[in-house]
Design goal:
alpha+beta
Length: 475
Amino acid sequence: MRAYETVIGLEVHVELATKSKIFCGCSTAFGAKPNTHTCPVCTGMPGALPVLNRQVVEYAAAVGIAAGCEIASYSKFDRKNYFYPDNPQNYQISQLYQPICRNGGIEIETETCKKTIGIHEIHMEEDAGKLVHDEWEDISYVDYNRSGVPLIEIVSEPDLRSAQEVIAYLEKLRMMIQYLGASDCKLQEGSMRADVNLSVRPAGSLAYGTRTEMKNLNSFKAITRAIEHEKNRQIDMIESGGTVIQETRRWDDAKGESYAMRSKEDAKDYRYFPEPDLVPVRISDEWLAQIRARQPEMREARMERYQKQYGLPEYDAQILTGSKRMADIFEQASERCKKPKKVSNWLMGETMRLLRENGQEPDTLSIDPYKLAKLVDLADSGAVNNTVAKEVFEELFLHDTDPEQYVKDHGLKTVNDEGKLRSVIEQVLKDYPKSVEDYRNGKQKAAGFLVGQTMKAMKGKANPGLVNQILKELL
């Protein structure tokens, strides 16, 4: 069989983090009861007119700046006409002819290469509603809460060559947008979705093959599986003498296969024309300068700063900046307690463990950084030992408990009273004479057993260093 090259371009839809929709004042909050965040504008009632949300323009421009795009001083909206139950107006307001951003690029790195993926354009548009299918009753319902939620669509050049490159690109894109605060990019909630345009061609050929589009993939695992399946499907079809048809396909992740939805439309099929109810968007040099001035420090810059300012190893800096939320907690806690490496250790150790155990992502962290700083101070001063500190941290993680109050309420402060510890250790030595004899005969492990019994007698509140010191003295 001939060798083939996979050619992939992505259309990534990102729901923006505005409080209201793109053309009306309805809430964009996720998870509300169906059809409760709606009004005449976002349900397409006759005579209802759209009014553009200024924040949408600023978020779109901010993403474009971060992606190295040219920001258009003049852009405008167009109508994309199509008929579908979740599209109440029977058209979508989008940008075809003059989008807000063009000609950018995002650098990615995989195990095999480092390259820049071109950004053809970024445009603003409104989201459609959502169909809810009831398989038991064989009926579908429509929820218009999502209708009119602001989107940007980020259209890449066909520069991607594998599922690995696609995931690296999407991860870089998601991180960039999260750092900007333009979207939470939660794939599971649909606030970031990817359409994959894929074709194959003989290795070495410059001509593109016939592409198919797989719609609205919303997990990295599904995207990877869909790409591998579609690549193999097209190769098998070509090798067997068939012809790949340009079409839109739907990926069924449960079955691990795709199926045809409809023939792929071109722009002419949507009958685009200028949106008559919206004036063009003009971005002045002053407005653009304000948006640029608000651009935050991005991940790469933060990683470098953490190593210089806080003296962290590269590995620590990489883990901490992998989530903007975690990076913010680290900085705020470190500022409070002035112990950045110890804050880093708590976040990279116990925090990551509890996140895994609770099935959470770092972006969902709700730890109060000032309470974390308190815990670091308690542990560092010896006010609580390591075992107690871990217990307190878990309470902080799960219930936002104040560390100092928890230690006080539960009597967990470390016992540093030498007289009291000496008395307890003397009793332990009397209770376990065999272990004392074993230690004196050269069995070092016996000392560990005696330390453990002392800690047990002290209910874990003894200062381990002082226990070891007194124990060795008495032995």
